[in-house]
Amino acid sequence: MYPEGHAVSNSESERQSLFRVGLLPVHHPEAVVSLPVQLGFTAGPIDRTGPLSIETVTSTQALEALEDDYERLNRVTGNGLPFALHDWHLSWCRQWLNCNPRVRDDLAIHVMRNRAGICAAILPMLRSVRTLGPLRVCSFNMLGPDPGLSETRFSLVEPGFEDAAAAAIQQHLAATSDWDWVNWSGLSPAFAEALGRHAALVWLEPQPGYLIDLPPSWEQLRTQLKRNIRESLRHCYNSLKREGLEFELAVHTEGAELEAALERFFELHTLRAQLTGVSLHPDHFRYEGARKFLRDVCARLAARNIARVFELRIGGEVVASRIGFVVGHTLYLYYSGFKPPWGRYSVATTIQAEAIKYAIACGLKSVDLSPGRVVSKTRWSPREVLYGRAVQFCAGRKAHWARLLYQLSSGERLTLLAPLLGRFERQGN
Fold first, then answer.
1. Domain 6-18+215-364 classified CATH 3.40.630.30?
2. Is the pTM here over 0.90, yes or no?
3. CATH 3.40.630.30 spans which residues of the chain?
4. Averaged in consecutive runs of 10 residues, what is the pLDDT profile of the chain (429 residues)?
5. Contact at 8 Å (CB) between 237 and 290?
C-alpha cells in the first residue's frame, strides 16, 4: 500500500474508527445504511419556509451547550475544514478571547432556528472594540482572528436556508447599534449571493482553497498528475533509494505519542521558517500562545479521532512533520516543517505524498491542501474552491467615518502606522 517506504498505520483499523465516530465518508458502502443519521435528517421533511429565529450566544458556557447543533450542521453542510468545528471554537475562546488588553472581544455567535426549533445556521462572530485615545472602532468579525492559525473562518448554513439566514442576520444588524463594519469571510457562493441581496457589501478578493478529489488508488491519482509533479515525486523517492536510505511514515493520533509529536513539529516548523534563499514560510508558532492553542485543540480533536501528526522518519530520525485533520470525508493538511539538511531529498513533498496515500487508504474522498495560491499546491492540479470575502459598513451618518476607519485598520497606504496597529494583534495568553 505504501510501496516506497513503510507506514506505521493500519488503514483498515483507521477506516473502522472513522466509521465508529461518524466520520466515514458517506460514499463508502458501509455508511450507506446510516446515511440519514450521519446527515442529521429527521423523520419527515425539514421546513425551509418562513423566517428563522435568531439567538446571540455571548458566553463560552453557552457555546459549550451548542455541541449537538454544531455536529449536525457540520454534517449537513459537508464541511471538511477543522475551523468550523465546535472544539476548534472552544479552544480558540480559551486561548485568544480578550488576550490583548487593547482589544475588547465579546462573543456574538448567532444561532438560527426554524419554527420546529431545528438549528439551520450558526454564524460565529466576535464583536471587537479597539480604543486609541478618542478613536473607538467597533467591528464584527468571523470567529478566529488570530496569528494565521484559523486559516479559513466561515459560517455553517444548512443548504436551502441561505436566504433566510441572510435575512435574519441583516435584520439583527439593523436593530443593533454602535458598530462600524462587519468583516464577512469564508462565504459559500449561495450564502454570498443571499447576503448580497439583503445588504450593500463591498466585495474583496476571494480566498482560494485547493482540494484534490481522490480516486480509489494512488496509482490512478499519479497517472492524472502533470509531468512536473510526477518528476518531483520520482526525485523524492529515487534520491533516497540511490543512497540506500529507507523512510517510514508514522501517523500519531492520540495520547502521549501525539503530544510528543507536536513538540517535534514545533521544532521542525521553526527550522523551516529560518531557511534563507527560499520562499518565505512564517513561523506561525513562534509564540507560546500559539503552541498552547494547537496543543489544546489537538487534544480535543484527538478524542474524536480527528487530529493527525504525520512524521517522516529516516534511520530513526524524524526529518519532516505535518499536521492533519480528518473532518467528514476530507483530510485537511495543516502546517508542516522539516530539517533543512534533508531538504535536498525533498522530504516536504514526500510527506505530503504519503499523507495523500494515507487518505486514499482510509477511504477518504478528498485532501484539502489549505488556502493560498502557491506552486506547492497548484502543481497537484487540485480543484479550486473560492471562499467569498466582503465588508459591510454601517448605514447612516457614520458610514463615511466607518469607511475611513476601515482603511486605517487595513493599513495598506499607511505603513507608518504599522507599529501602532501592531499593538492590537493577538498573540495569546
1. yes
2. no
3. 6-18+215-364, 46-207+388-424
4. 43 47 37 35 55 96 98 97 98 87 90 96 94 83 86 96 97 92 96 97 95 98 96 96 97 97 98 85 93 97 98 97 98 97 96 98 98 93 96 80 71 44 47
5. no
